[in-house]
Thiopurine S-methyltransferase
Amino acid sequence: MDASFWYERWERKEIAFHEDEVNDFLVTHFASLNVMPGARVFIPLCGKTRDIAWLMSQGYQVVGAELSELAVQELFEELEVDPEIITLENHALYRAAGIDIFVGDVFALTPDMVGEVNAIYDRAALVALPLETRKRYTQLLVTLTSCAPQLVISYQYDQSKLDGPPFSISQEELFQHYQAQFEISQQDLKAVEGCLKGQVEAVESVWLLQPTSC
Ligand SMILES: C[S@@+](CC[C@H](N)C(=O)[O-])C[C@H]1O[C@@H](n2cnc3c(N)ncnc32)[C@H](O)[C@@H]1O
């Protein structure tokens, strides 16, 4: 998936991954991260998710990264917030009270640009990337945030029956990416209603990653 794949998705409004409501797993399991209101939560590949508004309403600060400027413009319109837009290195940074969203390639971010991160919320981010990119992405998150704890929402299904994205992430794969730095525990799972893309039975899982060594 190159950048043009995602730009086209946003331009054509082919954004079935976008949820109209706040994610249930976020609401139920965010507390397991054990971060207090005021903490800064990184949302990689954030799109215009409504989960941002929910986190802000709970008193958290949000820092996001998203390729599509269109998505970020729509995010701020829906939040009814008028952002300040500044240029930082190779990104535009849309910023308002309690929210910083970097527009550009997440792989071009540095720890200095992102700043302090107390937790990561990964919904439809890891699963959006092909395997080789997932390996780079998981290491990037570790480096960018000094092993901040994570809530990861992923899918598991028979990859031979459907092309990603979203890609299937097995438990083994998740452990391969993260077990050196985190204790990993599955918090919950449910069947995807009506199958994934209406075609393949799939399970959606939420994982808690607590750092052990960094
Ligand atoms: C499957 S969507 C998920 C969006 C959001 N997390 C949600 O739950 O609605 C993946 C998003 O990642 C963005 N994206 C893909 N590759 C990216 C990259 N390298 N850097 C930043 N954003 C990226 C896409 O534009 C898209 O909005």
Remarks:
- Residues 131-145 form the longest helix (15 residues).
- The pocket of S-adenosylmethionine is lined by residues 6, 17-18, 45-47, 49, 65-68, 71, 105-107, 123-125, 128, 165 (CB under 6 Å).
